[in-house]
Amino acid sequence: MPEPSVIRDVVARYVEGLASGNAADVAALYAPEATLEDPVGSGVHRGRDAITAFYADVERVRMRTDLLAVRVAGDSAAFHFRVRTELPDGAVEVEPIDVMTFDEDGRITSMRAFWSPEDVHPAA
Amino acid sequence: MPEPSVIRDVVARYVEGLASGNAADVAALYAPEATLEDPVGSGVHRGRDAITAFYADVERVRMRTDLLAVRVAGDSAAFHFRVRTELPDGAVEVEPIDVMTFDEDGRITSMRAFWSPEDVHPAA
């Protein structure tokens, strides 16, 4: 089980990576056989290629992210963060809660994002 | 799958129930065969009797709770909340992130709480 400090560091790098906009960098935080479900209920993406494809969207938009809270328990973390995305019609914000599990090497083995379209609102 | 409004209502009743201090009322929000893991990694309690026993602690202490954020996705919810507990040596606070799943009738089928002892701090 990775140290809590390792898990916290990967979560911080993940949230920063979304804003930096490099899909390969974000996907590299995942284990090769990892799974991703974002949002929960929308279907599971499995494996590095599918995960890299999922994050290709982050390269197409300008985002700002802020980590609001992280809780580590066992090999898992739950965290609350804010994503502000610049769209042609104005900026929107959403504050998902994500849950991740990690392997011995601190790589993400699963990610599940809890949010729904009704949580997306125009940025203040 | 229950309506998001039903899930939100059960989450609110759960958080209020912790503060009201009646273990049977809190346990009644769960399905009979539900599971509870609090914190994640500490072992799973299964079934209404085990769950009622787990919440017996809430009857022994005075707590105040505040719901900070709820995100509903599919048949699941993740939520961030604050628990202030009055102890003989002073009040302590912790702000866990919990994840719950729900059955058709809006009963909790699983609860997993993400926090660790290092997240517990003296109340302001």
Q: Describe the main β-sheet of chain A briefly.
A: 8 strands, mixed
Q: Percent of residues of chain A in helical segments?
A: 25-40%
- Through-space gap between termini of chain A: 40 Å
Class of chain A, according to the CATH hierarchy? Alpha Beta
Element-by-element helix/strand order of chain A: HHEEHEEEEEE
**Percentage beta strand of chain A:** 35-45%
Q: Please give the most extensive interface between any two protein chains, plus how many residues each contributes.
A: A-B, 26 and 26 residues
Query: How many domain regions of chain A?
Result: 1
Beta strands of chain A, count:
8
- Which spans of chain A have pLDDT < 50 for at least 5 consecutive residues? none
CATH topology heading of chain A: Nuclear Transport Factor 2, Chain: A
Gross morphology of chain A is globular
The helix tally of chain A amounts to: 3
Q: Would you tell me the structural class of the helices and strands of chain A?
A: alpha+beta
- CATH architecture heading of chain A: Roll
Cα Rg of chain A: 14 Å
- Please identify the oligomeric state: homodimer
Provide mean pLDDT of chain A, rounded: 95
